[in-house]
Design brief:
A hairpin with a 4-residue loop joins strand 7 and strand 8. 0% of the residues lie in helices and 70% in strands. By secondary structure, the protein is an all-beta fold. It is elongated. The strands form 2 sheets. It has a 4-stranded antiparallel beta sheet, with no helix packed on it. The protein has a 4-stranded antiparallel beta sheet with strand order 3-8-7-4, with no helix packed on it.
Length: 100
């Protein structure tokens, strides 16, 4: 059984027991979350899509992690202008508990 869910504007294919990194979700490690935005559910060949989907996905937050550093370097030649800006995106690790 798997489901396709929408979390923070991205779509993920999830199964029960799977761990994955998603864009930052508010909450602490150990918190339980319900993902109500389920787009598709495949239950042993029985596919539910759109408004027919009644299932919700429950997950547990395992922790947070920062992604790789992304550098934005701006420079204007012959002017002495240089600006180096970097950021690291925050990700949340979740574990899918059940699709019900």
């Amino acid at each position: 059984m798997f489901a396709i869910v929408k979390i923070a504007g991205h779509q993920y294919k999830v199964e029960s027991g799977q761990q994955l990194y998603v864009s930052h979700i508010e909450g602490n490690a150990g918190d339980k979350i319900q993902i109500a935005d389920v787009l598709l559910v495949d239950n042993n060949g029985q596919i539910s899509v759109g408004n027919d989907v009644k299932e919700k996905v429950s997950a547990e937050i395992l922790g947070e992690k920062q992604g790789d550093k992304v550098i934005a370097f701006k420079m204007k030649r012959r002017k002495g202008f240089r600006k180096k800006i970097g950021h690291r995106k925050l990700y949340t690790k979740i574990q899918i508990e059940s699709i019900a």
